[in-house]
Automatic annotation (TrEMBL):
A GO cellular component entry from the record: plasma membrane
CSC1/OSCA1-like 7TM region domain: residues covered: 186-457
Signal peptide: none
Protein name as it appears in the record: Early-responsive to dehydration stress protein (ERD4)
């Protein structure tokens, strides 16, 4: 809706380009195909290339430029003590600890002189011989780009796949060339791995919830008895040990899920984070919420259930209020410790000062070390959804959890409103695509709450339980209406919106150049210069 110029609004991503039967290059084929369909608004295209080799040279060159700048600053600072100065030196071997000792400024300047023509040669080879079957296509107005992204350009689903172009800064270049069938196969393989991960993690999380209680610690680790007999230690461990163990265990997972999401062939960073967020949500709900609830019950009552299998529902209903204590302290730990660390930002502050003391030599290094991260949607959203699910489901069993949930989200609104506006720096703009992702999971949490309420009231033989039966049906109907009425607009830009006037005429050459990878164009134009 903004009148500002955004490069991605004038471009589409084209994948699954078929091989040319007439001997055309990929670029000639793309230009011919789209110029024929959009003769008045087609601008030009960038063919995706395999950039691994050229990126390696580019990164080495940039690293040398940074190091020579640091060396010159060190040399300049040494002149304040000694007018002649002391030229910095280093060793050329592993980590600068072994190998021949050389003058740093001369060495890195020589490397820059060698790498510059090497990079230019690698760029030419890449453009000529390493073209992939995908491209970025540019149009002179937003309406054509929005319409093209929503249109079928071929009769076969596995050729000429056209979608909205992501922002230049969040393109995952290594995924763009993957074919339709490769993406489909990868997606199902990743889903299977995630399923196996959920099953694998269910075992240790169930064991954590069972073994980290004080009575079990006394049995399993008798040498801890003298420590556990200290009242203050026993109180702290009894309240927080299972929760801390669970939080540490869960912290290992998000990076792995983000790696799997990127392995699906997803074209953008924001889409990969949404996919990882969805996997993480289902993982923590199935493992933390359901796993801890059922695991704790089965461990404590395994012998009784073995003697009388029919008593499992009664045992589960009787143990749920006891599990509520675990989740109540889990929520309390999240907002007491989590929000305190979030506001104080002690860990990033310590890391910054360590970097500034030992690593930063230039102003650019200091700015880079100080730059805050983004919000971290891939983990932040699933964790909030987990707290929502726990609060809703246990509100029937132990209503005392409701004020803790209210404090968590109330404080969270205040804390993260400040952090988002004044601290975090967004790494991308995805035009609100995270909201339907969250909305679906809020409704999933609501359905789980209603199912839990029905089951708990049924086991307790509550007389008016049948009155609640319409609630899940109403939730499903509401979810269906929302998906049909609203979700399409988040997936594709409405032409009504795309047709709104811009405050300036876009400079298409700058729009085009903003998508060229840095390793293919060292003089890449910053995105802020688009409004020309």
């Amino acid at each position: 809706m903004s009148a500002g110029i955004r490069a991605e609004q004038f471009a589409v991503l084209v994948r699954d380009i078929p091989s040319s039967s007439e001997g055309y290059s990929t670029k000639q084929q793309v230009d011919s195909f789209f110029r024929q369909i959009y003769p008045e608004t087609y601008y030009k295209s960038i063919v995706v290339t395999e950039n691994k080799a050229v990126c390696k040279i580019y990164e080495e060159l940039e690293d040398c430029k940074k190091k020579v700048a640091r060396a010159e600053i060190i040399y300049g600072n040494s002149k304040e003590v000694n007018p002649e100065g002391v030229r910095p030196t280093h060793r050329t071997g592993l980590l600068g600890l072994i190998g021949k000792k050389v003058d740093s400024i001369e060495y890195y300047n020589k490397k820059i002189t060698e790498l510059t023509p090497k990079l230019e040669a690698a760029q030419k080879v890449t453009l000529k011989d390493k073209q992939q079957r995908s491209a970025l296509v540019f149009f002179t107005n937003r309406v054509t780009a929005a319409a093209a992204a929503q249109s079928a350009h071929a009769r076969m689903i596995d050729t000429w796949t056209v979608i909205d172009a992501p922002e230049p800064r969040q393109l995952l270049w290594t995924n763009l060339h993957k074919t339709f069938y490769e993406r489909e196969v990868r997606q199902y393989v990743v889903y299977f791995i995630v399923f196996m991960t959920i099953c694998f993690y269910m075992i240790p999380i169930g064991l954590i919830s069972a073994f980290t209680t004080l009575p079990n610690l006394r049995k399993l680790l008798p040498f801890l008895k003298p420590i556990l007999d200290i009242t203050s230690v026993r109180t702290v461990l009894g309240a927080y040990l299972p929760q801390i163990a669970l939080i540490v265990f869960l912290a290992l997972l998000p990076k792995f899920l983000l790696f799997l999401s990127k392995a699906e062939g997803i074209p953008s960073q924001s889409h990969a984070e949404r996919a990882a967020s969805g996997k993480y949500f289902y993982f923590i709900v199935l493992n933390v919420f359901i796993g801890v609830t059922i695991g704790g019950t089965l461990f404590d009552s395994f012998k009784d259930i073995q003697k009388n299998p029919d008593s499992i529902t009664q045992k589960l209903a009787a143990s749920l209020p006891g599990n509520a204590t675990f989740f109540l302290t889990f929520v309390a730990l999240k907002f007491f410790v989590g929000y305190g660390l979030e506001l104080s930002r002690i860990v990033p502050l310590i890391i910054f000062h360590l970097k500034r003391k030992f690593l930063c030599k230039t102003e650019g290094d200091v700015k880079e070390a100080w730059l805050p991260s983004d919000l971290g949607y891939a983990t932040r959203i699933p964790n909030d959804m987990l707290i929502l699910t726990i609060t809703l489901c246990y509100s029937v069993i132990a209503p005392l959890i409701l004020p803790f949930g209210a404090v968590y989200f109330g404080l969270g609104w205040l804390v993260f409103r400040n952090q988002v506006l004044k601290v975090y720096v967004p790494k991308y703009e995805s035009y609100g695509k995270m909201w339907p992702h969250m909305h679906v999971r809020i409704l999933a949490a609501l359905l789980l709450f209603q199912a839990t309420m029905l089951g708990y009231f049924g086991v307790k033989q509550f007389l008016y339980t049948p009155i609640i039966f319409p609630l899940p049906i109403m939730t499903i109907i509401f979810s269906f209406v929302c998906s049909k009425k609203f979700y399409r607009f988040f997936q594709s830009t409405a032409l009504e919106v795309a047709s709104q006037e811009l405050k300036e005429t876009p400079n298409m050459e700058i729009v085009y150049n903003s998508f060229i990878p840095p390793c293919m164009n060292a003089d890449k134009v910053p995105e802020e210069q688009l409004n020309v």
